[in-house]
Design brief:
alpha+beta; two-stranded antiparallel sheet; single chain; 37% helix; 15% strand; 5-stranded mixed sheet
Length: 260
């Protein structure tokens, strides 16, 4: 009985097919590279267009123009974690300065960042009840657009920022948290400064005005000052910020109820 053998495809056809497959893969690879380069170029161009390196927050005179917007819903729109679990996480406090009767608070938080080993600092703020527990919580921070590209591009040029909380701000635990209570007047100033930043977003630079400096600029409404070494990683900055304001080792943590 004869065994039938499948006739092999012509060598020329196989060669052409393989070349076409390689060519398609190379085209797709080049397309991805071009898209990535386009994003990088766009972000860098935005940074250059935004001008000189920012090193500090706005003046009191500039912020005062936004006092009327302090109670506007637009000021706080998008600053909650309503899409990521209610008020966001209640975190252990490293230090706190909460005065009885103060109606509001500001909280400086440091968390790890998958994109950069130094970590990320942002601010939580809101109203307190009579026992000193948060009854509302908003989040704001300065994070460069473009994720990794923005972070490392910010070592060269000022980068545009995202101010609204990310899912990591709403869900990830912190390595430090520092809460300071605010008077009604101080809270109004904080809201006015938030309104200013939302209308006039800052730029992000790794060694000029980064997430740490942005958070500290909000803390100035309570008379808090930055540590001497401004250009330090977040995992060291929050502790230095606490010590610079005389609250090192001082933990007065009110009993906190679960988030709504």
């Amino acid at each position: 009985m004869k065994t039938r053998h499948r006739r092999a495809a012509p060598t020329t056809f196989i060669s052409i097919r393989n070349r076409l497959i390689r060519s398609r893969k190379e085209t797709l690879s080049m397309t991805r590279i071009r898209r990535s380069l386009s994003v990088v170029a766009s972000l860098l161009a935005s940074g250059l267009a935004l001008g000189a390196c920012q090193t500090s927050g706005p003046t009191d005179a500039a912020v005062s123009a936004y006092t009327a917007e302090a109670d506007s819903p637009a000021t706080l729109k998008g600053l909650t974690c309503s899409n990521n679990g209610g008020m966001g996480r209640t975190v252990p406090l490293t230090a706190s300065r909460v005065r009885a009767g103060d109606p509001a608070y500001i909280e400086f938080r440091g968390r790890m960042s998958p994109a950069i080993p130094s970590g990320h600092m942002y601010v939580a703020f809101g109203r307190l009840d009579a026992a000193g527990n948060p009854v509302s919580r908003y989040h704001i921070g300065s994070y460069p657009k473009g994720y990794v590209v923005g972070l490392y591009g910010g070592a060269l040029v000022p980068m545009p920022v995202e101010l609204e909380p990310s899912i990591l701000d709403c869900s990830m635990g912190t390595f430090d948290a520092y809460r300071v209570s605010l008077t009604e007047e101080q809270y109004k100033k904080l809201l006015a400064k938030v309104a200013y930043y939302r209308r006039n977003p800052p730029t992000w630079t790794m060694f000029g005005f980064n997430c740490n400096n942005f958070a500290a600029s909000l803390g100035s409404v309570a008379g808090l000052r930055e540590p001497v070494g401004r250009a330090v990683p977040t995992f060291a900055y929050v502790q230095a910020y606490i010590r610079a304001n005389g609250d090192g080792g001082q933990i007065s943590k009110p009993v906190q109820r679960p988030d709504a």
